[in-house]
UniProtKB/TrEMBL annotation:
It comes from Cupriavidus oxalaticus. Its main location: membrane. The lineage of its organism: Bacteria, Pseudomonadati, Pseudomonadota, Betaproteobacteria, Burkholderiales. Residues 5-56 form the Chemotaxis methyl-accepting receptor Tar-related ligand-binding domain. GO terms for biological process: chemotaxis; signal transduction. This is Tar ligand binding domain-containing protein. It comes from the Bacteria.
Length: 68
């Protein structure tokens, strides 16, 4: 006799939903951590090189083309 033979469908469904909820929380937490790390990295990149960003903006506005 198997372990699952003695369990009700309701119990199996609750267990499956619980496991899926935990998995969802883990994936969501990993995604939030990744977004935070990406934002920190981009913030560091932009704060370390403001002169080059200003040069790019100036070069873009002086290229003789008009943007519509």
């Amino acid at each position: 006799m198997s372990f699952h033979d003695n369990m009700q469908i309701k119990t199996l469904l609750r267990g499956a939903m619980g496991m899926l909820s935990v998995l969802l929380l883990l994936v969501g937490g990993a995604a939030l951590h990744g977004i935070s790390a990406s934002n920190d990295s981009l913030q560091g990149t932009h704060s370390n090189q403001p002169a080059s960003a200003i040069a790019l903006i100036a070069a873009g506005s002086n290229d003789g083309r008009s943007a519509f």
